[in-house]
Write a structure and sequence with these properties.
The protein has 119 residues and is mainly β. It has strands at residues 2-7, 10-13, 18-26, 30-39, 46-52, 57-59, 67-72, 75-80, 89-98, 105-109, 113-118.
Length: 119
């Protein structure tokens, strides 16, 4: 069983910063990549940033230069600076990982954490 637990969401004024963390626990053999996705009311879930086990990072164009993703062992962090009202959404942690030798890779999701940026 795998669990991804997010923390660090909240309310912040435009221009402020927040730091989101995601801790993966349970039966984990190998983490291939982890990422953050977000979903605003009435919109589809979208990719924010991802990081592979080798350290390769990708960012949505809308957050480049403002957000930084990092990882250490089974924990992932998203540092969000210069936040804008349009960053308001529920942020979800995603992990693509393997739970045992010879098993396939699967996606796991956290429960989500609310980020609200006021203007």
């Amino acid at each position: 069983q795998v669990q991804l637990v997010e923390s660090g969401g909240g309310l912040v004024q435009a221009g402020g910063s927040l730091r989101l963390s995601c801790a993966a626990s349970g039966t984990i053999f190998k983490i291939n990549a982890m990422g953050w996705y977000r979903q605003a009311p009435g919109k589809q879930r979208e990719l924010v940033a991802t990081i592979t086990s080798g350290g390769s990072r990708t960012y949505a164009d809308s957050v480049k230069g403002r957000f930084t993703i990092s990882n250490a062992k089974n924990t992932m962090v998203l540092q969000m600076n210069s936040l804008k009202p349009e960053d308001t959404a529920v942020y979800y942690c995603n992990g693509n990982l393997r739970t045992g030798w010879g098993r396939g890779d699967n996606d796991y999701w956290g429960q989500g954490t609310q980020v609200t940026v006021s203007s």
